[in-house]
Design goal:
The strands form three sheets. The protein has a seven-stranded mixed beta sheet with strand order 1-6-5-4-7-8-9, with helices on both faces. The chain has a four-stranded antiparallel beta sheet with strand order 10-13-11-12, covered by helices on one side. By secondary structure, it is α/β, with parallel strands linked by helices. It has helices at residues 32-56, 71-82, 95-116, 118-140, 152-163, 178-186, 199-204, 220-233, 249-255, 263-276, 278-288, and strands spanning 21-23, 61-63, 90-92, 145-148, 171-175, 190-193, 212-215, 238-243, 259-262, 294-300, 316-322, 325-328, 342-348. Helix 6 (178-186) links the parallel strand 5 (171-175) and strand 6. It is elongated, with a radius of gyration of 32 Å. It is built from eleven helices and 13 strands. The protein is 43% helix and 17% strand. Helix 1 packs across helix 2 (71-82) and helix 10 packs antiparallel against helix 11 (278-288).
Length: 357
């Protein structure tokens, strides 16, 4: 096999020592100053409510200094009670005051303490919350798409998939770089940090339940290993892999890839076409770019098209997929169209702002 270049999957030897883990997109969190201010306001509200309760029921309290409880004494009692200091100079002596302390003041004291130590509690519960989110994500994840390698090719694949209507929640990014996965999280994607040639990393991405797997590594040997591992874990998923050298494409297919894209030769052919026929090169580039100008799409045959010739459809048909056979538009066998056929067509890209579906 011919190897090529430096790969995101093999940036350095230490990458293989990374503990594989799943990272979910982070929810928007307010700044520290806003959080502290909000908790301070909540604490003051609890303190004010406690003062009000004591002030209303001041007749049931006894002050050892002057036997009366005024507003300042109510504030003082509420403060030392909520802070659990409790000097004992002001005490509830009536049954009503003691009942109010049990039913109202004590819960407010607990709430006050929770607010004050909210940051600590948040740290302690963060792992539990993340585990709960991760378990819920795993239980709901079915028929998703796994993209291995989030470089230029991986990002382009992601953009194309999202442009066709696939939700971000149904795409999982696998990459060994923390920074790359953090960038994917910031864009709303679930990421798995680790070497995708290892089965435990792909299992964390739930590859065994995936419908599609896109392998967009930079080295061909890495692509082969990932393809072999992914196919072993999932026998039915559609696997599409990219290779740099065309001579390595047969090996990818033998490893289990359903489709192989030769990036170097494809770019070279596009360059040559652009030199010989600049306008033809422009059209090809337009077809490659999803969501603008012309798009190349695959769609099922609708009932109104059954029995028609391929040239009688509303779209420009390039090929007809019948079972596992791909038939050219000019092949007599392509017509008439059957209900189980799928059409490879060229359509005008829709403007998202004008799409009313």
């Amino acid at each position: 096999m011919k190897l090529s270049g430096h790969d995101a999957m093999a940036r350095n030897a230490d990458e293989h020592l990374i503990t594989a883990r799943v990272t979910l997109p982070r929810r928007k969190v307010n700044g520290p100053l806003i959080q502290v201010t909000r908790r301070l306001v909540m604490a003051l509200m609890v303190l004010f409510l406690t003062v009000l309760i004591v002030w209303v029921d001041r007749g049931g309290y006894h002050d050892n200094s002057d036997n009366t409880v005024d507003f300042l004494d109510s504030v003082y009692y509420a403060t030392v009670t909520l802070s659990t200091t409790g000097y004992g100079d002001i005490v509830p002596y009536s049954d009503g005051a003691r009942l109010v302390n049990v039913l109202l003041v004590t819960p407010l004291r607990v709430l006050f303490l929770i607010i004050l130590v909210g940051t600590t509690l948040e740290v302690l519960t963060e792992r539990t919350r993340e585990e709960w989110r991760l378990n819920r994500w795993r239980s709901n994840l079915r028929d998703h798409t796994v993209i291995v390698g989030y470089g230029t090719k991986g990002r382009s694949a992601m953009q194309t998939l999202c442009a066709t209507g696939i939700k971000k929640e149904h795409i999982v990014i696998v990459d060994p770089s923390n920074k790359v996965v953090e960038a994917a999280n910031a864009e709303g994607f679930v990421g798995v940090i680790g070497d995708a040639t290892r089965s435990d990393v792909l299992l964390r991405a739930e590859v065994q339940r995936a419908r599609q797997i896109v392998i967009a590594t930079q080295r061909d040997d890495t692509a082969v290993l990932v393809t072999l591992t992914a196919r072993q874990l999932n026998k039915s998923a559609k696997i599409v892999a990219a290779v740099r050298e065309e001579e390595n494409a047969p090996l990818l297919r033998q490893s289990g890839a359903d489709g192989v894209i030769t990036s170097a030769s494809a770019a070279g052919r596009l360059l040559g076409l652009s030199v010989l026929s600049p306008m033809a090169g422009t059209v090809m580039e337009d077809l490659i770019q999803q969501g603008s100008g012309l798009d190349l799409v695959e769609r099922p045959v609708i009932k109104a098209e059954v029995g028609r010739n391929v040239r009688e459809t509303d779209d420009l048909v390039v090929s007809v997929l019948r079972g596992h056979r791909l038939i050219g538009y000019d092949d007599p066998a392509a017509s008439p169209l059957q209900l189980t056929d799928r059409l490879i067509t060229i359509i005008r890209a829709q403007n998202p702002t004008s799409d009313t579906r």
